[in-house]
Amino acid sequence: MADAAQSDKDRGLLVDGNRLTLHPEGPERLEALLGLIDGAERSIRMLYYIYRDDKSGHLIHEAMERALDRGITVSLLIDGFGYDVPQHFFDPLVAKGLMLCRFHPSFGRRYLIRNHQKLTLVDDIKVMIGGFNIEDSYFGTVEEGAWRDLGLLVEGPAAARLAPYYDELIAWVLTKGARIRVLNRIVHRYSESHGKLQWTFGGPTRGLSPWARATSRDLLSSCDVEMIAAYFAPTWAMLRRIGRIGRRGRARIVTAAKSDNHATIAAARYTYKNLLRRGVEIFEYQPTKLHSKLVVLDDIVHIGSSNFDIRSLYLNLEMMLRVDDPAFAMLLRTYFEHELADSLPITPALHRKRSGWWTRIIQAISFFLVTSADYTITRRLNFGRV
Fold first, then answer.
1. Which residues, 6 or more positions from 252, have their beta carbon under 8 angstroms from its beta carbon?
2. What does the alpha-carbon distance between residue 19 and residue 153 come to, in Å, rounded to a whole number?
3. Fewest beta carbons within 10 Å, which of 1, 78, 160, 185?
4. Residue 194 to residues 190, 197, 199, 203, 284: CA-CA distances in angstroms?
């Protein structure tokens, strides 16, 4: 297996007054997250899709308790579907002042919305984002079969711009009967369109969300795309744009060969035929389950919580950072090459060999389910194994 670990010097860059540091390895990502919480002096804002009652969950719990004992203001928002702890797990922290919120939309249109964002914002100056949740399997090693994921620490003025967004999101969650259109306004209000570092958010929009619109625009003008997509089932319009890059330049995509949800793998494979015809190079990551979310387009990087599928494009609350910097793009391309070394090339011949008529039917059904149902539902169905 290729060694994806890099030195701190190799993994960090200064961009527009902000220090950006990659955390590709699970154990050191947990260590960095704990250090971030333990170093807080004023405030901690945390937002996660999944929080588990396991070793990592207890370590973060203890770090939050130490912060509360120091007089730090701490708040935590967890998605209702991903809230997997005993009923009284957080009671001691709440008694010490923790503001705990569950994103638990009521039935109707709101019920479909998932808070898929992940962040820990400290003192309005440091924030860690990425695809990882608070669970042991996101902080383990490839050898242990943990999720392969990616974290990014942002230190500088860009971090502060997340604080008002987070606070308005908390206020919306706490408002009884809050309207979706208000959430839509929050997503658009805090999405940025200027600067080297731009926060772009996803949410329940009628068209493409701000982050998806930014990515779509960058796809239209780019000649070189490298993408790591754990869940890959985008719109056909997005697929056409990737295909055009494959014809005029270079397009490479790494998807998952292993997952806890077979339907997502089958759905991704449903898109391969048209992409391969257009010269797009496709690879499947072999060592373990893939959970990374990364798009590099020429000199632009999109990194954060969002998958490259229809739920993330149109419905889920997502958080992405768009970085326009050649050196940072080169750093992420180096990371991409490390992941590529552990991935299987999917040639047209290989795709044809493993895509019989029954397999194609399963893939088509999986694509429909993944693009129209919640991940939790398709995971419980365990559909898509072929």
1. 225, 226, 227, 280, 281, 282, 283, 336, 340
2. 8
3. 1
4. 12, 8, 10, 20, 34
Token pair of 269 as six digits:
């494979």
Which tokens sit at 32?
């960095």
Per-residue pLDDT of the chain (386 residues; tens, 9 = 90+): 444 444 444 678 999 999 999 999 999 999 999 999 999 999 999 999 999 999 999 999 999 999 999 999 999 999 988 888 998 999 999 999 999 999 876 544 455 688 999 999 999 999 999 999 999 999 999 999 999 999 999 999 999 999 999 999 999 999 988 888 899 999 999 999 999 999 999 988 777 889 999 999 999 999 999 999 999 999 899 999 999 999 999 999 999 999 988 899 999 999 999 999 999 999 999 999 999 999 999 999 999 999 999 888 888 899 999 999 999 999 999 999 999 999 999 999 999 999 898 999 999 998 888 877 655 544 444 544 55
**Amino acid (1-letter code) at residue 328:** F
Query: Look-up: residue for tokens 């806890």?
Result: 260
Distance between the two ends of the chain, CA-based, in angstroms?
A: 26
Q: Which amino acid is at 224?
A: D
Cα–Cα dist 255/240, whole Å? 18
Q: What is the pTM of this model?
A: 0.92
